[in-house]
Specification:
The protein is of the alpha/beta class. Helices cover about 30% and strands about 25% of the residues. It has a single domain, classed as Double Stranded RNA Binding Domain (2-Layer Sandwich). Strand 6 and strand 7 form a beta hairpin.
């Protein structure tokens, strides 16, 4: 057998084995955080360039801006109170101050929460300019519906919206209140992780 033929066959075998080793070493594994089981949320955030919110910054609710679309299927669960408690917790963890009064604040905070039947992606995009865009689907046969939470921050001096974050996830309509609060806390925290200056 000619040398060239042996060389090229050996080279081809070596290349094939090398590619198998490389591909085997490059497999990826996708994991969903157990905090969000059974359906992981999608988060999309936008901030103004150069914004950096310092520690000890003072926040207050933006007057007449908290928007919660209650759904009777939640059977009396105080979802709005849970969201507000989660926001307070995430602010405290970043050494920010949440005031009950708007006097002397640095930033105003607001949120909008709704299920898809009250506010679909087109409405969200028109109002806020961002949509994470998950697809509504039944998960593990549970009674679920797509829900959206939007949190935004307004600079008290300029009146400018400097950060907004939108989260979408599949919401379980029937859930123990303690577990629901834990999931809301984790969801809100994932949003505040994108707040400029909060790292």
């Amino acid at each position: 057998m000619p040398f060239n033929s042996i060389f090229w066959r050996s080279a081809a075998l070596f290349l094939s084995l090398t590619l198998v080793a490389i591909v085997s070493g490059c497999t990826t594994k996708t994991e969903v955080s157990s905090r969000f089981s059974p359906a992981a949320p999608a988060v999309l955030s936008v901030s103004e360039p150069g914004v950096n919110i310092p520690a000890q910054a003072r926040f207050a609710w933006l007057p007449e801006s908290l928007e919660f679309h209650a759904d009777p299927r939640f059977q009396g669960a105080k979802i709005d109170s849970m969201i507000e408690a989660a926001i307070h917790l995430s602010l405290r963890q970043r050494n920010y101050v949440m005031q009950s009064s708007a006097v002397g604040v640095d930033y105003f905070l607001a949120y909008v929460a709704a299920l898809e039947n009250d506010m679909d992606d087109n409405v969200i995009l028109q109002r806020f300019g961002i949509v994470p865009g998950i697809t509504a689907a039944a998960v593990d046969g549970q009674k679920m519906e797509k829900g959206t939470l939007i949190i935004y921050v307004v600079d008290a001096r300029s009146g400018k919206n400097i950060w907004r974050s939108a989260l979408q996830t599949m919401v379980t309509l029937e859930m123990d209140s303690t577990l629901r609060q834990q999931r809301i806390n984790a969801a809100v925290e994932s949003m505040f992780a994108t707040l400029p200056g909060s790292r």
